[in-house]
Design brief:
Distance between the termini: 30 Å
Number of strands: 9
Order of helices and strands: HEHHHHHEHEEEHEHEHEEH
Structural class: alpha/beta
Shape: elongated
Strand order of the largest sheet: 3-2-1-7-8-9
Largest sheet: 6 strands, parallel
Radius of gyration: 19 Å
Bound molecules: zinc ion
Number of helices: 11
Helix content: 25-40%
Length: 252
Amino acid sequence: MIAADLETAIARLTALIESAKVVLPFTGAGISTECGIPDFRSPGGLWTKNRPIPFDEFLASQQMRDEAWRRRFAMEEQFAHAKPGRGHRALASLYKSGKARAVVTQNIDNLHQASGIAAQDVIELHGNTTYALCLDCEKRYELGWVREKFEASGRAPDCECSGYIKTATISFGQAMPEDAMRRAEDLAASCDLFLAIGSSLVVWPAAGFPLRAKQNGARLVVLNREPTDFDEIADLVVHDEIGEVLAPFIAH
Ligand SMILES: [Zn+2]
């Protein structure tokens, strides 16, 4: 059912959460837009103007690696100053109450961790852009260090093992993180309430999770500004602002 208004949406969501034992929040770009993080995939978003650099091109040339880092540093103001929004805080409250054991996210902005959810309980399907990893030895690098080297030499630095250093995100053409995928599948199969929040649910294989949960008997809530392909099978569909809908669930 599509909630007729905000009040109905909140009342119905409250009832669903209260009657659930295990809630699994699954989040996409929509939860972070009120935090100033743009939705890259949206019409007019960055990716429609600036074609993302596929993984094979990143590997193939220093020029592309330099370009990838130049773009990342250009975004740093937005990422560095973003703070968790009402949606993040509501989900952190759900986590602290024990109803949600983890959050599965398509976001790379680290805002769930910043809202108080332990890093090991944030399942990141597309990685994390707030730090970098060596693609060979997986040594972690902080962005400030990469930027210093980049600005001093004009080129993206390599790891001490000579591997390429890349933000810890999953690029187009890069393998999905196996561990995160497996954990997300397990969580989707074992929850009894799946909350799809701010995701258009079109990016596969991530979009398979709500279906998996529903097939296992879980209730499904779709909270997204735009309609999704899953609205028809959802138990509750809300097209209001995420922050407005979730604000009452923030524990004080
Ligand atoms: Zn290395």
